[in-house]
């Protein structure tokens, strides 16, 4: 099923071809958009993927993907956010699907203390771009299963957050083309509402997991779980019930 291209975005730049970046690229190509893919290893490593995706896809460097995209997904590990090409992303709307998972190799005191959200950290690095948090709380399998035409009774909604209304409208329009409704949660400071360990993260789109799973087992289970449609009203209901962790600005 292909959704109609009703958005000004005709080319989507994708920086990072892990599960999230690749899932978004596949859905974008299926929806009729052109995609410019990039990773840290070089365009030549993406030859097979580009051949699989077809004529709407091509490989490039991260800087080239940033320049080519009307919209750009920065789908790298958060630990690598400072490697994003600032000059080429200046003036762009940048979709941030990155999540913070502190470990011994990457810890940010401002995130640990809730002084900043991870997207505010990314926005600080990309000072001349407009960052919108989106596509971070749904898995690629569910992204490929749950898309529906506009107005479908079982259409799924995805949250987004950002500081610039026009950038958020761009991303909402893109989500519509990809087959999803959008729910605006507010500014980047509000983006904690859909981060890991909140009711809006992953679980609504896969249902309740089996009991007793370790964190690693849950991730493996969620990556294979069938998608569960989540309407706009449910996203709004879950968001309205949230209370911020200590330290977050409300």
TrEMBL record:
<protein>
    <submittedName>
        <fullName>NAD(P)-binding domain-containing protein</fullName>
    </submittedName>
</protein>
<dbReference type="Pfam" id="PF03807">
    <property type="entry name" value="F420_oxidored"/>
</dbReference>
<dbReference type="InterPro" id="IPR028939">
    <property type="entry name" value="P5C_Rdtase_cat_N"/>
</dbReference>
<dbReference type="InterPro" id="IPR051267">
    <property type="entry name" value="STEAP_metalloreductase"/>
</dbReference>
<feature type="domain" description="Pyrroline-5-carboxylate reductase catalytic N-terminal">
    <location>
        <begin position="12"/>
        <end position="100"/>
    </location>
</feature>
<dbReference type="GO" id="GO:0016491">
    <property type="term" value="F:oxidoreductase activity"/>
</dbReference>
<keyword id="KW-0560">Oxidoreductase</keyword>
<dbReference type="InterPro" id="IPR036291">
    <property type="entry name" value="NAD(P)-bd_dom_sf"/>
</dbReference>
